């Protein structure tokens, strides 16, 4: 089980978290076009390498976190809280 | 010319001690090919074979960065079935099963297709309802598939705990008699040998590092062994599909997830059916060698790592023992992982793209081995004729931009 | 014929504790401390199994855990390593996969056809006629090589057959309790680390245990240091199974008092691998005849178990261990012929079948003997290191692959024989240096590698893999060097392909014994160097591990309502709904439904998700996540809402009530409770962090009871303390808070999922049972009865209320669920809006409709398909029941939009293949479509 | 008004003999075992949410991941902050009104969004006491609960027996002791799971022993 560095709780087993996927900017829904919106919904960069993604620490601080992870070997870098951009 | 295989040939070789000719040859990498297929898995090889066999396009190169079948094709649990949820799905996979049934003689290679029946267990009324839905779609499409009760499950799998007090009681199952397993490596080798005999070039340890596109058309690929000029490139790289598509500038609705599997030490045959439980995230079959082959659902987060995890084996064992408590002393021998190119609707992405000459046969997720033959047949036709065959018309990339996803999502959980 | 020797200095058997057990039905003696194999060998048994393909008789090869020749069935346990497992009194040991007996095995006839059965022969035959293949398949299956499991053979998990797990967090975990490992553990512990020292064998000591007096002195000194050092947890008869990401290390611990086996899941700050060397077999003709053994096997048998492995031995030696073995044998009274490989000596063939009778030497001599010992080299036990990313490199001097520690992550180190050679003192010193460095790394918050201990010397060793003849390479898979040559010839030049074609290294030993030989022979066949040929991939587990141990104690989280025990004692049929166990019915769901239509019933709906929402921005949140409008919801009112995903697909529904200015209670579907809450949090934390809202899941703070039926108000009136339930005071779709049956803090919603007048009571959970019983008591004269999920399903279907996930699927958008009226596109933003604004065109996708069957009493199975006039599938029945209220079938169905108009006819394809007609109904509701009853 | 005061049932079926304490059906079993497990669900419990490091946080004065004992509203309270800006406050049985009132008063004094929820019924709370408690928990929980990483007065949230739970290290008389809180519906499962895991250490169930709360007359259930 990989360990994820929660900015609040410290390193925790990944199964305490929910994976919310790579971070994608949400187009402005009032001006978006079908093509752009569906790109947002379905297309993924799916990078083999370092990615920025969101995780939810379900069994811990209950915060959404922003994490950088190398998808080729699951190495991780320190994370931040999704809303404040900082942790403890 | 390679010789044909038969019992007689075995006998002849045995008596004379004469050696066998290679199943495929190592050939020089040419500067250009009319068709370059990236990915030497079942999809790439089948496409090459059908291009040559059905359309006379023989001057084809199949490039693989590793060894043949080293991707998902060499590490999948080899479960074949056609009891899908949508009409498109059923028709498509049923054609594939048909090709599998005739494969040994078509390829003159025994792929050991074992028709042993496929059971998808229902542990809740909800899944029972989905089973019924699937059974009815299957039957309406002429595919043998029926919902059976716990007693019948017990008859097919005596080890199964079908008691009503189980934490996840077996309320019934979708039984699909034509389903089964195949020797996955044999399928890869069979296609490779047959394609090689028709003139296809198989280049192992040849990694594509770039795709040349000019004026909206593919003009060539770059590899670690030098450039190749080509007007047609097929991306058949499954788990790596996004990395290759990126080279052509075609973004995909794909996320790569590891899928793990494991085998036990061999024991005497006792399990004659393929058993799948979506609720418990496990599927199991026993091979002719006696080992049990297990799979589960994909890892909970996207990754290109195939190292595998401990929790996978823990979860797997717990779930298997809930189904068959008598297996506690059986030992797990090896675990491994492969990469799955998951799409939002659990259906593949096949056909042409906006980049002329760049074709896709990706999005095979956890279920693409069984589709190898039909996908190869259809992609060969698509490439050779420039027309999208009817059987794959539902699977085009443009469905995402149009918001017309395939309904297979409904029965997603653990399919195989 | 006893082969038991007199007492040895280092022996592990207890001669004061004799015992007996059975082998293939016959009783044999042994001593405590014997393995199954040593006890049998002491009685002169030489054949323990038959080989996989050719059923050749097999004897001991390594006399250790890895021995491929000694896999046996013990009681109900298959594939037991007989050369590792301690024999116990009364054990029932049997040989596996032999028929009729071990000594006369019919399948040995395969050997005759051996030339026709080369590697992968099955790919080349049995192809025609195709219909015969299933019969061939049955024949092939008979060759499955292993023990037996199945009903009646393997017992269920009970008593001391239970399995267990625990977590551990050692600073340093040392894998391997040989001299290097012991030294590393002691030094790390002395540096202040918590250490876990894991040894696969039954005692610490590694190779020292079967060594000479000098070794034994070193052994007892090291064991003494381990025992005297605090902070070391020693696990013997425990094997490190794998190293995973995050330095998670799995260890299987055996021989414990409380459990059969225990899986230890250790998160080590630093892993020190000290697994030593494994002696490799030599490939030549007849190398699998019983009586051909490795030198370590002989030394184990002689020095640990006091067993004489033969009377006349030939020892092929290429190293000091071989020389020492010859001396050990001589001391045990065995006549020894030495063949020194360092001086060109070689063995070309072992002759004999059930046992060695003679050996042909390289110089043409033939020596009569009953034991052939080979000491031709080592394999580094690199598998744990490769799991950590190492890629071992072939070392020409040492003639073995050695770890390339440069690729190791900083939290993994290696010491001892696995990295190099040297005297015992040098290995111990290396272990100490490694232990010290491991301690240093463990103390850092982020581990960095610094000075690695100075390398161990590498002693030259002749490159002996295959001799002049072909022989067995993979003993458990019956793969010979000839097979590998054939594979290469046929194009399988890459080791990964040759492995899969021949199955070499795919058996129970997983190549720990034979992978170097496999690589060397492939290299020989392809003409490449060993170094560039490379090995196949190592994978966990290091040693096969029981499913029981991996599973541990079988427990699945289960959620219970406060009323669960009441349901149980009142005959409720359990319905497994995810983690919840709910009452499906109490015997008669139809009567239960009828009581709701005619009088009053109560149902436990505790699993309904409940989320407490507070703050000034709640209504903005509701406007965002629901498709309908929420800004104008007044205090005291509830509203039904539907949530969609960003793709417009319906994900959940429920009612939300406004309890106070800034306080709301949201309800969700039972299965959606957790996902909806996380969904709200994701909007609040990532997209709208400026909004001031607190969302707290409170699902099981309350027992939730729905009181439904025309008499529900009468009943409720009898239990409320301070809530006015009169129709004017408490209208439909309103919420009140107050005291019920003496219980403060209750929330009451007037809603109507069942289509009847009904109230949903949310009662502080600890009072749930009290309120439930009060309702039953107070309503006795009203005929109140509890109803279960099935009755509720009937009722809601009569009323045409959809269930998300049943009447919708993962592609159903809001309008496909007949919720067009609810979707308010004039809101500027809500989740799903873009898709819903583009995709709602008539004729697009499927729609939820009601169906009227003809004949109208025909109840099609849920999941039945609908066909259009061309006979093509155009939809499906999503819900269907016989309505007790109407006496006919009531159905909901998803049907293509073009057909979703009242009165349109479709064909229903029935489960038995027959068909029936059905018509799309005017509305979804079949009972009280005007909604008079729930507004009563 | 009803004639009898209703009995409150906790999430864990009480081991016999059963009595009533502060309105709750409780086990009156007393065990002297070295490792004991007892249901503490009857304690008054409040969940508080407020900005992390905000004004209320200053008032409550318990650090994130820590605990604090203090007296307020004339009862002894155990304050914990197992999540950032999420407090769990415990008070003796029957004191939930006083507890919530006090917290709401604190909230009224600060200018920020605060929610105070009475979760007395919503959570299951058990206490595990004895030197072997960390060994037992090591079977059910992946976190390092050693003295070094989880000293007395630590509060954290993690998975125990695969259920999300707060672990509050709250030693008693120098004896290792942990309070474990999970949502109520999983309480029985968690309790059984701990008992099962602890069998090899001889864990026994013992009833709740209150400091300073008047007992009502026992009523068998
Ligand atoms: C554990 C597991 C179990 C499964 N079980 C089943 C099952 O039971 N039934 C079923 O139907 N399906 C199953 N699947 C899915 C199935 O294995 C795959 O969908 C299928 O094998 C895909 O085949 P492919 O030929 O498209 O791709 P692959 O076999 O993955 O081949 C892709 C090839 O592309 C090569 N490649 C990648 N990038 C490059 C590059 N840049 N240059 C050159 N070559 C490149 C790779 O080396 C690889 O060999 C399973 C998958 C896994 C991992
Ligand atoms: N292999 C040989 O016979 C050989 C050859 C040359 C020298 N030596 C001598 O052997 C010693 C080498 O010392 P060493 O400590 O490196 O090796 P060692 O072989 O003495 O000890 C290694 C120990 O690790 C254990 N082990 C291996 N894998 C394990 C796993 N996954 N989990 C748990 N335990 C595992 C083994 O059972 C063994 O007891 C020196 O004294 C040296 O002189 C031995
Ligand atoms: C259907 C199937 C059966 C397998 N059976 C065995 C087996 O009996 N023994 C074994 O060692 N490996 C077995 N494997 C696993 C392979 O050895 C290997 O792990 C897998 O192909 C992945 O390759 P890798 O481990 O080299 O990455 C099997 C794989 C599959 C797909
Ligand atoms: Zn956290």
UniProtKB/TrEMBL annotation, chain A:
Pfam families: SoxD
A GO molecular function held by the record: sarcosine oxidase activity
Example of a GO biological process term: tetrahydrofolate metabolic process
Domain of life: Bacteria
Signal peptide feature range: none
InterPro entries, per the entry: SoxD (IPR006279), SoxD_sf (IPR038561)
Name of protein: Sarcosine oxidase subunit delta
From TrEMBL, chain D:
Domain (GCVT N-terminal) ranges: 76-208
Domain of life: Bacteria
Pfam hit, one: GCV_T
InterPro entries: GCVT_N, TrmE/GcvT-like
Annotated protein name in UniProt: GCVT N-terminal domain-containing protein
Organism: uncultured Nocardioidaceae bacterium
């Amino acid at each position: 089980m990989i360990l994820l560095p929660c900015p609040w709780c410290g390193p925790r087993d990944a199964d305490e978290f929910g994976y919310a996927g790579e971070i994608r900017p949400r187009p402005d829904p009032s001006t978006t076009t079908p093509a752009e919106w569906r790109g947002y919904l379905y297309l993924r960069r799916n990078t083999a390498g370092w990615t920025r993604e969101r995780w939810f620490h379900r069994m811990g601080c209950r915060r959404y976190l922003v994490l950088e992870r190398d998808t080729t070997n699951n190495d991780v870098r320190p994370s931040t809280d999704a809303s404040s951009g900082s942790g403890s | 010319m390679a010789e044909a295989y038969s019992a007689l040939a075995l006998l002849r070789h045995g008596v004379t001690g004469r050696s066998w000719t290679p199943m495929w040859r190592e050939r020089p990498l040419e500067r250009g090919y009319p068709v370059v297929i990236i990915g030497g898995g079942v999809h790439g090889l089948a496409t090459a074979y059908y291009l040559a066999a059905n359309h006379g396009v023989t001057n084809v190169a199949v490039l693989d960065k590793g060894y043949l079948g080293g991707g998902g094709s060499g590490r999948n649990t080899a479960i074949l079935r056609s009891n899908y949820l949508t009409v498109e799905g059923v028709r498509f996979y049923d054609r594939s099963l048909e090709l599998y049934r005739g494969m040994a003689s078509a390829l003159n290679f025994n792929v050991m297709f074992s028709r042993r029946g496929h059971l998808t267990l229902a542990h809740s009324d909800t899944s029972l309802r989905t089973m019924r839905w699937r059974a009815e779609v299957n039957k309406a499409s002429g595919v043998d598939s029926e919902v059976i009760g716990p007693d019948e499950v017990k008859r097919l799998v005596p080890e199964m705990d079908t008691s009503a007090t189980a934490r996840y009681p077996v309320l019934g199952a979708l039984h699909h008699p034509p389903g089964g397993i195949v020797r996955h490596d044999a399928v890869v080798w069979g296609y490779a040998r047959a394609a090689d005999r028709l003139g296809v070039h198989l280049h192992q340890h040849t990694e594509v590092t770039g795709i040349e596109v000019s004026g909206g058309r593919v003009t060539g690929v770059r590899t670690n062994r030098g450039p190749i000029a080509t007007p047609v490139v097929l991306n058949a790289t499954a788990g790596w599909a996004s990395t290759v598509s990126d080279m052509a500038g075609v973004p995909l609705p794909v996320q790569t997830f590891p899928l793990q599997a494991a085998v036990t030490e061999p024991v005497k045959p006792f399990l004659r059916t393929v058993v799948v439980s979506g609720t418990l995230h496990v599927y199991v079959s026993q091979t002719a060698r006696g080992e049990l082959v297990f799979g589960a659902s994909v890892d909970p987060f996207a990754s290109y790592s195939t190292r595998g995890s401990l929790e996978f084996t823990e979860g797997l064992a717990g779930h298997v023992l809930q189904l068959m408590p008598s297996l506690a002393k059986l030992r797990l021998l090896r675990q491994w992982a492969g990469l799955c190119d998951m799409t939002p609707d659990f259906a593949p992405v096949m056909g042409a793209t906006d980049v002329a000459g760049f074709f896709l046969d990706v999005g095979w997720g956890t279920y693409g081995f069984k589709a190898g033959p039909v996908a190869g047949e259809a992609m060969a036709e698509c490439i050779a004729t420039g027309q999208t065959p009817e059987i794959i018309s539902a699977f085009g990339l443009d469905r995402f931009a149009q918001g017309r996803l395939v309904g297979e999502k409904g029965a997603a959980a653990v399919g195989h | 014929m006893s082969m038991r020797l007199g007492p040895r200095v280092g022996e592990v058997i207890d001669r004061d504790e004799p015992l007996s057990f059975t082998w293939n039905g016959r009783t044999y003696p042994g001593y405590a401390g014997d393995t199954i194999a040593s006890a049998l060998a002491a009685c002169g048994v030489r054949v323990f199994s038959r080989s996989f393909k050719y059923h050749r008789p097999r004897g001991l090869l390594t006399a250790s855990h890895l021995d491929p020749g000694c896999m046996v069935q013990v009681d109900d346990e298959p594939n037991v390593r007989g050369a590792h497992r301690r024999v116990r009194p009364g054990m029932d040991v049997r040989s596996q996969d032999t028929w009729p007996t071990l000594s006369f095995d019919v399948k040995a006839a395969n050997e005759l056809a051996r030339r026709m059965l080369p590697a992968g022969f099955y790919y080349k035959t049995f192809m025609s006629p195709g219909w015969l293949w299933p019969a061939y398949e049955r024949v092939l299956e008979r060759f499955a090589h292993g023990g037996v499991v199945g009903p009646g053979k393997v017992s269920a998990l009970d008593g001391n057959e239970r399995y267990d797990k625990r977590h551990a967090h050692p600073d340093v975990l040392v894998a391997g309790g040989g001299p290097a490992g012991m030294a590393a553990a002691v030094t790390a512990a002395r540096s202040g680390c918590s250490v876990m020292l894991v040894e696969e064998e039954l005692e610490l000591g590694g190779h020292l245990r079967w060594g000479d007096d000098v070794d034994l002195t070193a052994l007892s000194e090291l064991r003494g240091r381990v025992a005297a050092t605090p902070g070391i947890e020693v696990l013997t008869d425990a094997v490190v199974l794998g190293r995973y990401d995050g330095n998670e290390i799995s260890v299987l611990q055996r021989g414990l008092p409380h459990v059969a086996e225990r899986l230890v899941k250790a998160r080590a700050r630093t892993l020190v691998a000290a697994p030593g060397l494994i002696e490799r077999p030599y490939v030549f003709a007849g190398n699998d005849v019983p009586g051909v053994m490795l030198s370590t096997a002989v030394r184990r048998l002689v020095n640990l178990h006091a067993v004489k492995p033969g009377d006349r031995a030939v020892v092929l030696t290429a190293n000091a261990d071989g020389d020492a073995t010859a001396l050990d044998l001589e001391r045990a009274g065995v006549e020894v012929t030495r063949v020194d490989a360092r001086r060109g000596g070689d063995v070309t063939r072992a002759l004999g079948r059930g046992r060695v009778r003679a050996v042909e030497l390289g110089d043409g001599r033939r020596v009569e003997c009953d034991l052939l010992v080979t000491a031709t080299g080592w394999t580094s036990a690199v598998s744990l290191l490769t799991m950590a990313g190492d890629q071992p490199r072939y070392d020409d001097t040492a003639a073995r692959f050695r770890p390339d520690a440069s690729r190791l992550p900083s939290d993994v180190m290696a010491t001892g024989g696995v990295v190099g050679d040297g005297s015992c003192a040098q290995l111990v010193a290396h272990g100490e240096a490694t232990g010290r460095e491991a301690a240093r790394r463990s103390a850092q918050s982020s581990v960095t590698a610094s000075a690695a201990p100075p390398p161990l010397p590498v002693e030259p060793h002749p490159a002996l893999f295959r001799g002049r003849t072909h022989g067995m390479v993979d003993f458990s898979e019956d793969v010979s060097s000839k097979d590998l040559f054939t594979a290469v010839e046929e194009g399988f030049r890459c080791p990964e392909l040759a492995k899969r074609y021949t199955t070499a290294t795919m058996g129970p030993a997983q190549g720990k014994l034979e992978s170097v030989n496999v690589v060397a022979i492939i290299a020989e066949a392809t003409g490449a160097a060993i170094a560039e040929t490379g090995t196949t991939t190592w994978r966990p587990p290091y040693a096969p591990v029981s499913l029981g141990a991996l599973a541990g104690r079988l427990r699945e989280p289960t959620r219970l309502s406060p009323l669960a025990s009441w349901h149980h004692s009142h005959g409720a049929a359990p319905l497994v709904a995810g983690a919840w166990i709910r009452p499906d019915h109490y015997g008669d769901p139809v009567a239960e439904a009828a009581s709701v239509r005619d009088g009053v019933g109560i149902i436990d709906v505790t699993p309904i998700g409940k989320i407490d929402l507070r703050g000034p921005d709640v209504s903005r949140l509701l406007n965002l996540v629901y498709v309908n409008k929420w800004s104008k919801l007044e205090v005291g009112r509830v509203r039904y809402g539907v949530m969609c995903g960003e793709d417009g697909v319906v994900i959940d529904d429920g009612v939300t009530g406004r309890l106070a200015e800034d306080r709301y209670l949201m309800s969700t579907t039972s299965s959606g409770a957790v996902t909806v809450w996380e969904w709200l949090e994701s909007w609040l934390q990532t997209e709208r962090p400026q909004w001031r809202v607190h969302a707290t899941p409170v699902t099981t703070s309350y027992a939730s009871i729905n009181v439904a039926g025309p008499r529900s108000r009468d009943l409720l009136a009898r239990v409320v303390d301070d809530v006015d339930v009169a129709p004017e005071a408490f209208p439909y779709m309103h919420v009140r808070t107050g005291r019920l049956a003496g219980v403060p803090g209750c929330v009451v919603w007037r809603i109507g999922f069942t289509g009847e007048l009904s109230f949903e009571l949310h009662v502080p959970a600890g009072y749930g049972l009290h309120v439930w019983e009060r309702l039953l008591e107070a309503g006795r004269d009203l005929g109140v009865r509890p109803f279960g999920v099935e009755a509720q399903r009937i009722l809601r279907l009569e009323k045409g209320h959809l269930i998300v996930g049943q009447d919708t699927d993962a592609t159903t958008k809001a309008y496909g669920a007949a919720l067009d009226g609810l979707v308010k596109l004039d809101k500027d933003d809500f989740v799903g809006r873009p898709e819903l604004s583009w995709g709602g065109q008539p004729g697009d996708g499927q729609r939820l409709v009601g169906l009227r069957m003809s004949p109208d009493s025909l109840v099609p199975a849920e999941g039945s398909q609908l066909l259009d006039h061309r006979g093509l599938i155009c939809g499906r029945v999503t819900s269907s029941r016989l309505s007790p209220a109407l006496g006919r079938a009531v159905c909901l169905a998803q049907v293509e939009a073009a057909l979703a108009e009242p009165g349109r006819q479709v064909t229903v394809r029935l489960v038995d293949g027959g068909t029936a007609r059905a018509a799309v109904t005017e509305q979804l509701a079949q009972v009280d479509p005007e909604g008079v009853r729930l507004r009563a | 008004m009803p004639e009898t005061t209703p009995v409150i049932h906790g999430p864990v079926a009480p081991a016999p003999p059963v009595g009533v304490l502060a309105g709750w059906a409780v086990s009156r079993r007393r065990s002297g075992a070295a490792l004991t497990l007892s249901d503490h669900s009857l304690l008054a419990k409040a969940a508080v949410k407020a900005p992390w490091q905000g004004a209320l946080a200053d008032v409550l004065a318990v650090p994130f991941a820590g605990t604090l004992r203090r007296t307020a509203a004339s009862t002894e309270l155990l304050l914990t902050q197992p999540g950032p800006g999420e407090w769990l406050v415990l008070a003796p049985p029957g004191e939930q009104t006083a507890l919530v009132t006090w917290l709401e008063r604190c909230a009224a004094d600060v200018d920020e969004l605060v929610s105070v929820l009475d979760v007395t019924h919503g959570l299951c709370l058990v206490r595990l006491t004895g030197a072997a408690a960390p060994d037992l928990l090591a079977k059910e929980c992946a976190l390092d609960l050693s003295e070094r990483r989880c000293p007395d007065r630590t509060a954290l949230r993690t998975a125990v027996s695969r259920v999300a739970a707060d672990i509050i290290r709250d030693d008693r008389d120098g004896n290792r002791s942990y309070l474990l809180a999970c949502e109520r519906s999983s309480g029985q499962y968690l309790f059984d799971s701990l008992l099962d895991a602890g069998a090899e250490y001889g864990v026994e169930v013992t009833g709740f022993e209150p400091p300073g709360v008047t007992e009502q007359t026992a009523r068998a259930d």
